[in-house]
Amino acid sequence: PNQFYRFFTAMFLHVGVIHFLMNAFAQYALVSEIEFAAGFWRTGAMFILTGACGFMISAIFSPESVSNGSSGAIYGMMGVETVDLFQSWYLLQNKSRLVLSLVFKLIIFLGIGTLPYIDNYAHVGGFIAGIVAGISLLPYMVFSRFDGIRKKVFQIVALLLLAVLCIGLLYVFYTDEGTICSGCHYIDCIPFSPGMCDGNQ
Description:
Elements: H1 6-9, H2 17-38, H3 40-61, H4 71-87, H5 95-112, H6 120-137, H7 145-175, H8 185-188
Helix pairs in contact: 2-3, 2-4, 3-4, 3-6, 3-7, 4-6, 6-7
């Protein structure tokens, strides 16, 4: 419990070459686009914060499990992508296609996380943190004076919420001694057949 730095270092470790290559490809396909729009430093901050929050949630809900890799941060970038989509809404063409594409990706990737031996707590936690991080750290375009004020307020509130989220997760991790959600194990693994999720318990 006193090695809190593991929440940050775990995202740079992988269980093998295949795991590393899969995450590297996902980062190249998704994170590079966000970095082009937001810059290196903002993207790096969002990547690390969302990955750490994902591991914090994983440690709270599944403290006996071993987890590493950058997938929590990658799902965080999907949350950032969601925010970017709606912040750029007025400039987009084929809005329906882009929304359907995003929803399809979320259903597929979060659905895969319900299979055994995949840390979906980190995925869902990273995605939620990514939405908050995207609102607070992404650069945004202003289409009117009211729109600028609204987005600035959202940005300040989201930045405070992101700080509260990180501090709150650390507090729960260090103080909680029991199960805080008896049914939340279905987020991590859905038993489509008997005994399918035994390895996730």
